[in-house]
Write the structure tokens for this entry.
Amino acid sequence: MLARLRLACAALVLLFVTGPVPAQQLAPREGVTVSIACGALGIELELCREAAQEWARKTGNSVEIVNTPNSSSDRFSLYLQLLSSRSAEIDVLQIDVVWAAMLAPHLADLEGPLGERVDRMFPALARNDRIGGRLVAVPWYIDAGVLYYRQDLLDKYGFAPPETWGQLTRTAAAIQQAERVAGNQRMWGYVFQAKAYEGLTCNALEWVSSYGGGTFLDGSRNFTADNPAARAALAQAGSWVGSIAPRGVLNYDEEAARGVFQTGNAVFMRNWPYAWALAQGEGSPIRGKVGVVALPHGPGGESAAALGGWHLAVSRYSRNRAEAIDLVAHLIRAEEQKRRAIKGAYNPTYPALYEDPEIIAANPFFATLYPAFENAVARPARQAGPRYNQVSDAIWRATHGILRGDDTPASAMDRLDDEIARIAYRARWKEDARSE
């Protein structure tokens, strides 16, 4: 009797707050099949399947793992196609951090059931996933750009890990020259992601923000990178190509940069945390010779790491919304994030877990990553919303022109300002901002 009374009260509260909803969404049921897209292959898929099956056993439900493309751009296209047609084929979606704003109209509000948990995570994550007053996704694991360095080479030549980009430039040049004199003609000072794609937007954001030059778009969607600090940051980056970085860096993505670094032919590398386990793996030429620190900063600036990672969202068109939300709640538990950290080196979204001795024992470099996550800078996806792909495309094209030497930072940022203004005009951002 008491249980029925509680259910009736809950139904009245939901009706008052949100209006009529299907009865099956008021509380999780048993015997329901929930579909989830949560990884394409390898350890990522294995960990998801194990946790989902655990939830199924506990709740009396079943889980269907939906196969999705390994390419993130192909996966986004699939999601957009399904959601635009209001398909209920996938209940729970694993989404990239920058997709929350782009897919927001199609995603359920998770504030009520999961908002308190998200507020215990890194603040940048909570800000990223709250769009227009709704919590449209919840963080599952976090990424941020970090600097890898050859500890053995820095020790050999008497250098400390750099704190500024100027120090990195000088240290990279000195060790590169010394190693080439010693016989390694393939040694380079610094490798990073300079290919014309999303990874270059991340790098550009880190350079500009760490110089105090803004984040390309501010909270009011105004362009912020046409200033002396941003131009100085981009000029510094342009000076690396052909000096401490090979010309080929203009075609490097994450794996290309890692290939050069892991074969022992680079002093420094900008990459995501995933590269640590590979650099330290069996057979790696640099195993035991690598360190990780926060990315450098410009004069008077602060280290800025592009926020990355993957989140979980529930489709608005799900026929099993309550069960889908319950599955998401199970997957983002601190206990599950700890298991994923120990078994798969996935970075937890709860700051408290970076003090867990078992996690640190399994991943000693996690303690080093904490400042990078705490100071992570989000790409301007929240500001750009559905137009983020266009904005990012404009940013990496302008930056690539500077790195190639075809353009100056001043003229490139001036044209980028105009291009983003045209995107803003087409999107009517000012009207949107006033209505939010």
